[in-house]
Amino acid sequence: MATAAREGSEKLDPSVYKICFVAVFGPLLAQVDATIVNVSLSSLAVELHASLLTIQWVTSAYLLALTLVLPLNGWLLERTGAKRLFLICLAGFTISSALCGLAWSAGSLIAFRAFQGISGGLMAPMAQMLVARAAGKNMSRVVGYMSLPVLFAPILGPMLAGVILQYATWRWLFLVNVPVGLLALLLAFTLLPEDRENLRPRGLDWGGLALLSPSLVLILLGTQGIAGAGGRLEVMFALALIALFLWHARDKGDAALVDLKLFKDRVFRASAITQFLSNGALFAGQMLVPVFLIGACGQAPTDMGWMLAPLGLGMMVSSLAMGVLTQRLGTRRLVCGGTALATLSTLCFVWLAWQQGGGSGLDLHLLLPALFLRGMGQGSVGLPTMSAAYSAVEKHDLPMATTSLNIVQRIGGPTMTTLCATLLAWRLEADGALHVGLNAYGWAFAALALLHGLIWLTAARLPVRTAR
What we know:
Elements: H1 14-23, H2 25-38, H3 41-47, H4 52-55, H5 57-69, H6 73-80, H7 82-101, H8 106-135, H9 139-167, H10 172-175, H11 177-191, H12 206-224, H13 229-252, H14 266-296, H15 304-320, H16 322-329, H17 331-357, H18 364-379, H19 382-391, H20 398-431, H21 440-459
Helix pairs in contact: 1-8, 1-11, 2-8, 2-9, 2-11, 5-8, 5-12, 6-7, 6-20, 7-8, 7-11, 8-20, 9-15, 9-16, 12-13, 12-20, 14-19, 14-20, 14-21, 15-18, 16-17, 17-18, 17-21, 20-21
């Protein structure tokens, strides 16, 4: 398979950029589709004569199916190869999008969305692995540009949804994926190199699958309903299943669904922990900031688009500069610097909550720069950390590394979001929404700042520069 330019060379092989161009279609399709559906749920409920509670499963079925198949990623890659599996995933996503557009009821749409989640759940890890295998130690130089279209997805999705719902039927919310998917299939078939020599077929670890997949689904369900006894029971059961899986995987060794030996490497372990915490901080912040602006500051939900725009703009700026920053600062200094920036911006929100409690009102002159800096800081953590993790493993271990990192990310988001939401709910119940001093929102942002501090401690164990 095509690889990056030789060790130490500054010029990348043009084939690397071709691979990255094709690979970005996977996560872009999935992200735009998810955003379109999420903002259109109320319209779908009306069109399909279903309750909002029922139509919510259009999103939930996709997420559950995605989570269920995620542990299979490494095993499938080793049996089928990256190019073939990517083509299968693109074809499955395109076909399921067409079926969603032809759905005749809420139930059929939910079923087809679950099918879509199976293929969509493997496309983001596949894109990461394709780029990691092609770019090698130069991953940071290309992955920043590759992430830009995905960062545009939250902006593009609502715009597309608005145009479609105004000028066409709801079916085009899904059918719009079909021509893009067909184009992606053609490009993938033409431009992606064959990688049959990297195949390492092995038997499926059915015991590990039976433990890990349900545990991930239960974490997703349990954290959504953590306020109730049922949700807490699901989380406890999920943790027990994960513990059993770790015991099982240790005994299975190389034959396990996830090879735990990867985590014995200091760099990979530090990268995985940083990914877990940073993904959690990202999702927790995406929950806390709008809740604060709407619940404490009295802002209208319709204003969230322009008010949160600096956050996405900051992430785009850091992504564009990722190659230069990594080359000049190195992985450790870049991630630690980005984490410090995110911590500082989060402390600004503690101050904003303090001001709000004192009746000072919302200071936009502090809010907007704080959001921009938070976006820049967060954008400087995830991609270099991922590059460090991939650089720490051998090429033949990339499929397993991809699976492991995506599982860690998948757990981190809901876990940290739930912890911050639980703290916020507890303080709101104890103290009320606003009072003079450090109110409920201030405590929640302080906890988020502490989480960024933990990220800095783990990031300090990353290498100064990637070795491969």
